[in-house]
Design goal:
Helices cover about 25% and strands about 25% of the residues. It has about 450 residues and is of the alpha/beta class. It binds zinc ion (2 copies).
Amino acid sequence: MFVHAEWGGGAEVPVRGAGGEHRDQRGGGGAHGLLPLLRDEGELLRGPARAGPGRGGVLHREEGRGGALVTSGPGVRAVVIQGTWAPRGSKAPDARAAPPGNRAWRWPQVSVQTVPLRPPGPGEVLVRVAACGLCGSDRALCAEDEDGYMRYAGRVRLPLVPGHEFAGVVVEVGPGVHRVRPGDAVTCDNIVACGHCASCRAGATNQCASVEEIGFTKPGGLAEYAIVPERCCFDANPIVQALGAGDGYRVAALLEPAAVAYQGLFLEAGGVPAGGTVVVYGAGVVGLSCAALARAAGAGQVLVFKRRPGGEDLARAVGAEVVYAWDELQRQGRRPADVVRELTAGHGAELQVEASGALQATVPEMLEALAPRGTVLLLGRQAGAVPVELDRLVSAAGRVVGSLGHAGERTFPPLVERVARGELPLGALVARVVTLDQTPQVLQERLPPAGKTLVEPAGRVA
Ligand SMILES: [Zn+2]
Ligand SMILES: [Zn+2]
C-alpha cells in the first residue's frame, strides 16, 4: 500500500529463512507450529455460521473444529510468514489488535505451506489468484533489523499469508453477494475499510479509522486462493477482454500500486497540468505508474530521477522522456533541480512527485525547481524531519500535498477503464513472473530487479 524507501538500505539486511534457528513459540515450535495456530485463531479457517449444508460450489466441505467449515483434502498452498511474538516496550500490545510488526515480531520466517481454506462467508468472495505482485512491504515483512525485529513498520498479524496486489477469477460467492459472479475476473483492493467512520462516510476509505489490510492483518493473495470481501473486488473483465487472460491478469494485479499513484495525482494533487512538466522522483512501480498516468493525462514532458541501477527502459516504456540517474548527474557536477530548470527554460515543473521514500534528498530539489503555482506531491514515506526552505512555497505560491494509499471505489474503476482502452502501458512494468515455490527466496533477495515481480500461484492463465 505504501511507497517504501527506494534508496534505503532495507534490502541489505540478514534474513532468516524457513530453515533458521528461531521458531514461532506461540505455535509450539517446530515445523508444524503454524497449522494449529491457524486452526485456533486464523482468519482462513474461521468459518461463518451457515443456515444449512447443500449450497453448490467448488469446495468439498466438512465440519472443522468449533463448527468451522473447512476444505477436505490437503488444503491450499500459500506463502506463510511466521515470527516470534516479542513485544517491545513496557506496555505489551495485544497480538489480536495487530500492532506494528517492528514493535512486536521477531525473527520472521517465510515458507510455502499447505493451509486450510474456509468457504466464503456472507459478503465474501473466493478468488482463485491468477497473479500477485511483490513489493517493498512484502520484503520488509520477511526482513529483520539488527535486533531481529521485523522491518515492516505497519500493522500486521502473524502467522500471515502476505500478498496485497492481486487479481484472479471468482470461484464462489458467499451469501448476499450480488455484484460479482463465479467466472468474473476481479482485481482486489487490499484496504478493508470499516464503512462507518467519518472518513469512510466521506468516501476516504484510505483514511479509515479502523482499517484492516489484506496481506497484512488479513490473509492475502500469495496463495492459490484468497477470500476477499465483495466490496474489495473490482471488475477486471474489461482488461482481460482487451489483453487476453495471460497478460490481462498480470496487468490487473498491477492496479493496486497504480491506484496509489492515481489517488495522489488525481484525487489529492488535483490532476496533471496539461502540457506542463511532471517530474517523478523514484523509479519504482508507484513512481513509474505516476509517469504513465501523467503521460496519458496530457503532460507536456515527464522526467524521472532515480538512484538505484536499472529501470531506465521501463521508465521510457511508460512514457518518460528523460530518465536521470543521480550518481551520473553528480559526476557531472549537476543536481536534479538544475536539470529541471534547464529543460523548462528556467520556469520549473508544475507537478513534482516524491515516490522514492528519500524525502530528505528529494524535497529540497523539488522546491528549488517548482514552477509558479506548482505542486509537490508526497507519496513516499520517510521518518524524521526534512529541512526545507519554506519561503520557496511563498515565492512560488506553491503547495505541498500528501497522499496515502488509495480509496478503492474512486481509483480502481477508472484505472480499469484506462488500461482496457490501451491508454496505460502498465504491462511494461512487469520485470519477471515467478512461481509460489520461488517466492520465499525471491522475497529475501538483496537486490531485486527494477520493475514488478509477479507471482502466478497456479501458473499462467491461458
Ligand atoms: Zn505493495
Ligand atoms: Zn472507516
